[in-house]
Amino acid sequence: MLQLAAAGCGYRLAGGAVEVGEGRTLAVPMFDNLTAGFRIEQRLTAAVRRELVQRTRFRVVSEPAGDVVLDGQVLGVTAIPVILTGDGRGTGYTVTVDVAVRMTDSAAGAVVFENPRWTFREFFELSDDAEGFVPEDSAAMERLSRRVAESLVALMFAAVS
Would you tell me how many other CB atoms lie within 10 Å of the CB of residue 161? Predict the structure, then answer.
């Protein structure tokens, strides 16, 4: 139960990989992108795969078949300005990503874990200065992808343990 509460807050479990998935294959095919967000499904899928490799003993594959299959969908991506300049230009944004995930045990055909809509937010700023402009939105999406992956894998520990 502590794992579930900690995962919702973005905390990670202490220590290295746990004994979850020893000798099993976990398939993580590319998430479906139901949005116009450019390559967000690639970032999220890659982050989830990395986290699974680092934190579990599953053999993680990209094919759609394995002992356990994790399917995901990107349902929505929005960037909303929350800090504006005097002339109305946005300099601070909150990006929100909505995802759906389902983990299925292939042998039993049973859904082990499912969340039909999971929302994550990240803040980023843009420089006012054209000379010092650094596009921060890409870095914000990477941070957001890591948070999604960390939370998902932490919740999966409870589901497959």
Answer: 10
Q: Which sign does the torsion angle of CA 53, 149, 147, 140 carry?
A: positive
Q: Note the pLDDT tens digit of each residue in 105-138.
A: 999 999 988 999 999 988 887 766 555 544 556 7
- At residue 92, the pLDDT reads 85
Nearest partner of 153 among 32, 36, 4, judged by Cα: 4
**Cα(155)–Cα(159) distance, rounded to whole angstroms?**
7
Q: In the structure encoding, which two tokens stand for residue 92, read together?
A: 């601070």
From CA 30, how far away is CA 43, in angstroms rounded? 10
Instruction: Give 149's Cβ-side CA count (13 Å radius).
Output: 25
Spatial CA neighbour of 120 closest among 101, 103, 91, 96: 96
Q: 42-81, pLDDT tens digit by residue?
A: 999 999 999 999 998 899 999 999 999 999 999 999 888 8
2-160 maps to CATH 3.40.50.1370 = no
Q: pLDDT tens for residues 92-110? A: 888 899 999 999 999 999 9
